[in-house]
Every structure is written in structure tokens, then in C-alpha cells.
């Protein structure tokens, strides 16, 4: 072999090409000879393995802690995102029922029917009644709402006359055991007064109809009142039509016993039961109070000609006198003691009672106490100063 020939290689010795392409080896470095410091020692290798083990352990612990924290936080985050299942609206009916009260109840019941988040309504009632037409407006609104969602009513002290008419369509009526007046299904108003000729009117009845016509109209209102109550609660009330038409106002304990109310309870209990009826376990309560204080009574002015007007600035005149659906217990605070009250029940007056009724307007106390006619009741009420129905 000549000196120019390449040295021979053993079969196991890799070639330069193998060294450059082998995946298990690093590419050749510079010509600097490798020293012992360049090679990993056994202790370095062991340290690297320990570092990797400790790192993996720390990552595992962190993952476990993160999962645990997620389990604790997730319900709160989920609840914050989803919120309660629904809302129970509590709508107040407080004080004398007038146009403002009716508008408040109508607006809030309409909102409850159109608001997808509201699942039930509770009427918080403390009212002895008020104007008949406004009471009927609330009655219609409650009836319409009860057809689409649970509507409960809770009576605190007073839930009588026009207020009772308003809540009659409710699915359930709760009363406090000590409630003072519940029911009083009838109409009360000022005594009908005769109207003479008036040159300033365009017709004989423009100033006001005669007393007989006034009584007939009020009797019609009373009949409508009692028919609505029987339609809504006839299956619950354990009294016949004549007893209901007597227009008595019952204590809370009596109202539950005779069916004018369903059970004893207060607003909180009514809210919980209404929510249960609606099928919601987690709910919020949205209380709708009247925006301005409801007046304690309807101020009246009686003119020299005998007409009665509401002293609210509008000077709107009622030709037949002001007709109120109000419980006798609330008459003083609603109207006052300056106006004589006559009451009307669901019983039509018998023939020949007109003359007796005429005596009522003049304060005649000669009506027979045993007479069961509406005119006799009017006479008794007028004689007692409007203190009894």
C-alpha cells in the first residue's frame, strides 16, 4: 500500500457519510478536541431526571388545584351568567280605589303578561274599595292575567267592596286572621236627590235623573258586582246569593270559613306558593308600589243644588251623585261623614218600595225594621249615619 492511499477501515467503523447522516449522532463539530468537561457526567444526568420529575409533579399538582378551584367557582359563575329561574311580581292595591289606582294595577299587570321573565303575580291588598268603574277595570286586568299565569292575592287589613271585586278572579286569596273587612259585595253612594227643571240644560235629565232612575242604575251596578263574584268564586263561597248580596264584611277568620278567602297567610307565603305553582324554585321578587301616595279618601264637594263633585281640580260633575263601591268600615276615610250614605245590594226592590226609598233621601227613620227590601236597608243605613250595611 502506498503512502497516498487512504488508511483502511474496519467493517464496524462508520464512514464520514454515516456520521453526517446518522440520526443518533450530532453533526461534527470543529477540530477542537473534546474534553472531559464537554461530556455530561453521571450526576448531571441524574439531576436532569430529578428536575423533570419535579416539574411534572408540580404541573400535576397545579392541574389538580385548578380543577378543584373550577369545581368551587363554576356554580357561582354559572349562576351569575344564568340568573334565577324567574320573577314574581308583587303589585300593590292600597287605599281608596280611584283612577290612579286602576291605572297603576292595569299597567303593571300588562307588563307582567308581556315580560318573559315574570312567571307569577301576587296582589298585595289593603283597600276598602272605591269607585265602581275603576274597580271593574282592575277586575278585568286581573282576570286577563290569571288566564296566562298564577295570580294570588294577599289581604292585610282591608280587602272589601271594590277591592274584593278586583281580586275575585285571583287563583287564591290569602287573608290575615285579623283582617278587619273582607267581602262587602255591594254598592254604596250618596242619597239620590230629586232634580227639578233647569233652564240652563238642553234636556230635562241633563242636570240629573230622578231618584227612582238613580236607584235603578245603582241597583244594576250592585247586580253586576254580585254576579261577577259568583262567577269567579261561586264554587268556593259557602253562602247563597241572598247571603252574599247582604254585602256583609267579614273578619279574616270568618272569610276563610265561609269561602270568601282560601287560607290564612301573608305576602311572603303567597309569593312562595305562587312561585311553586309557576314551577320556579329560584326566583326574584319585583315589588311594584304606587309611584305617588294613594290618597286616604276621595274629597267631595256638595253644591247648593244638591250635586256632588270630586274635588280634584277637574270639577267633573256626577249628575246622579257620586257612586262608590266601598265597605261601610272604610266609608269615613273614603268619603267622610258629611255625606249621607245609602247602600245597594244585589236584591231588586219590590213593588211599592219606591215611596219608602223616597223617605230615605229626606232622612225619614220610619221605615219598618223588618222590611227586607233594599229601600228598608237604605233607610236603616241613613238612620244610623252610614255606619252599617
TrEMBL record:
Q: Where is this region: Disordered?
A: 1-51, 190-215, 349-373
What name does this protein carry? Signal peptide peptidase
Q: Name one GO molecular function term.
A: serine-type peptidase activity
Q: Ranges of Polar residues compositional bias?
A: 1-13
Q: What are the recorded Gene Ontology BP terms?
A: proteolysis
List the biased-composition ranges (Low complexity).
20-29, 363-373
Species in which this protein is naturally found: Halorubrum californiense DSM 19288
Instruction: Kindly state which keywords UniProt assigns to this record, in alphabetical order.
Output: Hydrolase, Membrane, Protease, Serine protease, Transmembrane, Transmembrane helix
Asked whether the keyword Membrane is assigned, the reply is yes
Amino acid at each position: 500500500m502506498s503512502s497516498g492511499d487512504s488508511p483502511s477501515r474496519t467493517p464496524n467503523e462508520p464512514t464520514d457519510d454515516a456520521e453526517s447522516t446518522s440520526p443518533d449522532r450530532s453533526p461534527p463539530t470543529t477540530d477542537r478536541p473534546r474534553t472531559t468537561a464537554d461530556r455530561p457526567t453521571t450526576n448531571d444526568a441524574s439531576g436532569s431526571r430529578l428536575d423533570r420529575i419535579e416539574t411534572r409533579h408540580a404541573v400535576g399538582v397545579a392541574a389538580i388545584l385548578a380543577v378543584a378551584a373550577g369545581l368551587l367557582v363554576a356554580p357561582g359563575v354559572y349562576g351569575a351568567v344564568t340568573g334565577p329561574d324567574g320573577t314574581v311580581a308583587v303589585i300593590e292595591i292600597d287605599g281608596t280605589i280611584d283612577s290612579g289606582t286602576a291605572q297603576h294595577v292595569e299597567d303593571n299587570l300588562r307588563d307582567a303578561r308581556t315580560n318573559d321573565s315574570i312567571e307569577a303575580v301576587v296582589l298585595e291588598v289593603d283597600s276598602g274599595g272605591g269607585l265602581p268603574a275603576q274597580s271593574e277595570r282592575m277586575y278585568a286586568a286581573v282576570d286577563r292575567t290569571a288566564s296566562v299565569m298564577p295570580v294570588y292575592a294577599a289581604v292585610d287589613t282591608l280587602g272589601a267592596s271594590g277591592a274584593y271585586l278586583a281580586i275575585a278572579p285571583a287563583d287564591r286569596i290569602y287573608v290575615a286572621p285579623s283582617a278587619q273587612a273582607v267581602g262587602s259585595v255591594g254598592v254604596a253612594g250618596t242619597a239620590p236627590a230629586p232634580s227639578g227643571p233647569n233652564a240652563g240644560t238642553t234636556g230635562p235629565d241633563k242636570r240629573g235623573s230622578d231618584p227612582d232612575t238613580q236607584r235603578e242604575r245603582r241597583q244594576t251596578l250592585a247586580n253586576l258586582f254580585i254576579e261577577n263574584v259568583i262567577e269567579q268564586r261561586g264554587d268556593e263561597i259557602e253562602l247563597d246569593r241572598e247571603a252574599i248580596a247582604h254585602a256583609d264584611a267579614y273578619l279574616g277568620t270568618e272569610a276563610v270559613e265561609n269561602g270568601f278567602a282560601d287560607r290564612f297567610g301573608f305576602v311572603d307565603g303567597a309569593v312562595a306558593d305562587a312561585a311553586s305553582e309557576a314551577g320556579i324554585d329560584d326566583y326574584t321578587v319585583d315589588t311594584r308600589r304606587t309611584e305617588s301616595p294613594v290618597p286616604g279618601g276621595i274629597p267631595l264637594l256638595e253644591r247648593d243644588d244638591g250635586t256632588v263633585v270630586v274635588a280634584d281640580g277637574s270639577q267633573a260633575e256626577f249628575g246622579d251623585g257620586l257612586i262608590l263601591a266601598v265597605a261601610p268600615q272604610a266609608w269615613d276615610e273614603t268619603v267622610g261623614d258629611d255625606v249621607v250614605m245609602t247602600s245597594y245590594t244585589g236584591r231588586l226592590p219590590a213593588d211599592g218600595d219606591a215611596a219608602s226609598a223616597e223617605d230615605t233621601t229626606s232622612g225619614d227613620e220610619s221605615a219598618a225594621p223588618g222590611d227586607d227590601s233594599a229601600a228598608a236597608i237604605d233607610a236603616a243605613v241613613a238612620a244610623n249615619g252610614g255606619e252599617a250595611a
